[in-house]
Amino acid sequence: MSALTPDGSPDPLAGLHDALIAWLPSQRWFPAKGRQVAGVRTAAHSVISQPGETPTVEHAVITVSFADGAAEERYQLILGAQHQPPGDLDHAVIGRRPADHGDDVVYDGLADGRISRLFLALITENATREPLRFVAEPDTEPVIVGPGRPLQGEQSNSSVIYGERAILKLFRRATTGLNPDLELHRALRREGSAEVAPLLGAIEGSLDGEPMTVAMLQEYAANSADGWSMALASVRDLLAEADLRPDEVGGDFAGEAHRIGKTVGAVHRELAAALGTRPLDAEVATEVQAWMLERLDRAAAAVEGVAEQRDAIAAVFRGVSDAGPTTIQRIHGDLHLGQELRTPTGWLVIDFEGEPSKSLADRVRPDSPLRDVAAMLRSFDYAAFHQLSEREQATDDPDPQLERRAQEWADRNRSAFCDGYAEVTGTDPRDTPELLRAYELDKAVYEVLYETRNRPGWVSIPLRSMRRLLTPAGRSQR
Prior knowledge:
The protein is α+β, with helices and mostly antiparallel strands. It is built from 13 helices and 17 strands. The strands form 4 sheets. It has a 7-stranded antiparallel β-sheet with strand order 6-7-11-12-10-9-8. Strands 1-2-3-5-4 form a 5-stranded antiparallel β-sheet, with helices on one face. The longest helix has 26 residues. It is globular and about 70 Å long.
């Protein structure tokens, strides 16, 4: 008997499940590379192209199970299918359907310029190809360009760029509900934000009878550089000099850190205006502390360095309840230097999906803007110390002088960021030091757990910051 999809129809991917199991671990966006995939099921499937068009274009949601028995995960695929694809698509091939299912070669459709061009045309036309809706944002100019080219090096999602004019991002993780990246870009567009790339359109569908975001289309920030790369170059310049202070080095980053602070402050003001705020009352503070303590206990169970400091960290988390009058609102939720783009005219904030490890409900829950601020402060620490961490791994020889200079760079840029933020919002994050310290420690706990599982060589960076934040000197943010 042929396999069936959840709606009872024959599964058009049934003959490809083994091929998908072999293909998934090689994809940059697939997060479970170190785990054995036990099986694949088709959760949803639709054909986007019209009958007789070549290639056949399909949208699918697959459910992936794992040999370790962990929770299943769902992912979105855009597939192209034809009997003999062009040779330049060989690298994207997943497998061939059995003869009784058409005998077509099936491949990753985002690698095919014909498919990316079709998507752009469908968005411009506000077309519907059930169950998918291609939606252009109101009052936007159509992007008339040719086929898209896949963006190399991206993780979590997959994007194609259209002639340096627009970028289409496919959200690989399939979840029901409106993706916060699309939701917050729409909110910021209503506010006329200049701090994000303008939203041009989206592809929306459904899963399990609920709405689902498939992809979003934005203007492409051409000639831009990300903040992480720029910050690393600044740190390299500093460490290469024997006796210069950070402000004396040609690659000093503090001016850019100040501008990033202003940009993040403007985004917070715009999100508050678009979606509102409410007080951080006792009930919300208790919920926030509960999230922090839950993550702390997970990290303490996995990392001895956290377990040794568990009680001291938990005591800092109680500062959330002692913060005094403050507000919560929608925030970015996963902010770091890599989510900041420097264009010829200023900085843009990107990727509003929120922290990947959280559920959608947690990612859209209002929180203090200090969570974003703390995440940026942590990112400056990462930029300052990650090169030292690599050096220490290679030489097994810590250099106190270089550590001191890296800390000077971090302190200077953290301060510049907060200055810029306060300049725009009228609220200095350092005026509530215990609340800011709680959020920064919570982020460091998350980082320790992440690095232990994914990049053990980097775990010394958040562990060093945890020790600093638990000392009296580390409490001062000025």
